[in-house]
Write a structure and sequence with these properties.
Protein name: Desiccation-related protein PCC13-62
Organism: Theobroma cacao (Cacao)
Distance between the termini: 53 Å
Shape: globular
Helix content: 40-55%
Strand content: under 5%
Radius of gyration: 19 Å
Structural class: mainly alpha
Keywords: Signal
């Protein structure tokens, strides 16, 4: 399984390169007496928006239920997701997705062990939410509407949408963090998010030229369309690449296969919280919620943009 080796190398290099030195700074002591700089708190809490999304999507996909049953305390009273359900997965894919699901539960715990966190935001994980995203990616309605829960290949394509966004967010956050505890946490989270993305891309790359029924569109084209959409919504240039790219965008400009996305040096792209909100809202605007977050994200960073928008409406 070639993709597993690539994932291991990728994760290892990221973790070792991002292990932090200690930095001085004004300390904030949270509810569990873990000291992190005040400036780090919002940057550590913001990713909970993505971690909630991943946890619920993977839990429901594999098990047919989510955090409300697995660990209600992690939701902090936030509303249950809309439209999430068990996917029609083959045994191997279900096993992989269940591993991802439980990893995401661990991520929520790790972040909340370090900072207080916030309640689960309202999530829309309905088939129609994913269908709208795919229609947006293809710039036309797909017939029938795309259903992420219909089968394993659809679910893997839908999964392609999610971990990579969180990965780029962690890459973007790391240089802004001041504390050693903060940097170590983000490096650890980034390692596993990168691994999840690598596994998803590897599984899809194996079937890159296979056509997705009934659309007569290849798996690779689905990934390219999704990546192009995220680039458009993010408004920050090229930070996303599909599974097959022009050679100039491949590793060392010499290959079209693109099982792992990276810049011209094969280094992971970064994104800011604003870019992430533009993408996951599906609106291209960090102040206009929608997509997977019909009421917007939670936490100080996400809410600050919603409050700013409300002041002018």
């Amino acid at each position: 399984m070639a993709f597993s080796s690539a994932a291991i190398v990728f994760i290892s290099s990221l973790v070792f390169s991002l292990l932090p030195p200690a930095y001085p700074g004004e300390l904030f002591v949270d509810h569990r007496n873990v000291s992190v700089p005040k400036s780090d708190v919002n940057l550590l809490e913001f990713p909970l928006n993505l971690e909630y999304l991943e946890a619920e999507f993977f839990l429901y996909g594999a098990l047919g239920y989510g955090l409300d049953k697995v660990d209600p305390s992690l939701t902090m009273g936030g509303p249950s997701p809309i439209g999430a359900k068990k996917a029609n997965l083959d045994p191997f894919t279900r096993d992989v997705i269940l591993q991802f699901a439980l990893q995401e539960v661990g991520h929520l715990k790790a972040i909340k062990k370090t900072v207080k966190g916030f309640p689960r935001p309202q999530l829309d994980l309905s088939a129609s939410s994913f269908a709208k995203l795919m229609d947006h990616a293809f710039k036309k309605p797909l017939v029938p509407p795309f259903d992420p829960y219909a089968n394993s290949i659809n679910y893997l394509i839908a999964s392609y949408v999610i971990p990579y966004v969180g990965l780029t967010g962690y890459v973007g956050a790391n240089p802004k963090l001041q504390g050693a505890i903060s940097k170590r946490l983000v490096a650890g989270l980034l390692g596993v998010e990168s691994g999840q993305d690598a596994v998803i891309r590897g599984l899809l790359y194996e079937r890159a030229v296979e056509k997705v029924h009934p659309y007569e569109v290849t798996v690779a084209e689905f990934t390219n369309r999704i990546s192009h959409l995220r680039n458009r919504l993010g408004h920050a240039g090229l930070k996303d690449e599909g599974l097959i790219v022009p050679k100039i965008l491949g590793a060392e400009g010499k290959i079209s296969g693109n099982v792992l996305a990276g810049d011209k040096f094969s280094v992971s792209y970064d994104r800011t919280p604003e870019e992430i909100l533009r993408i996951v809202y599906g609106s291209g605007n960090e102040s206009v919620p929608g997509g997977f977050y019909p009421k917007g994200g939670n936490g100080r960073i996400a809410r600050s943009y919603l409050h700013s928008a409300n002041r002018y409406t």
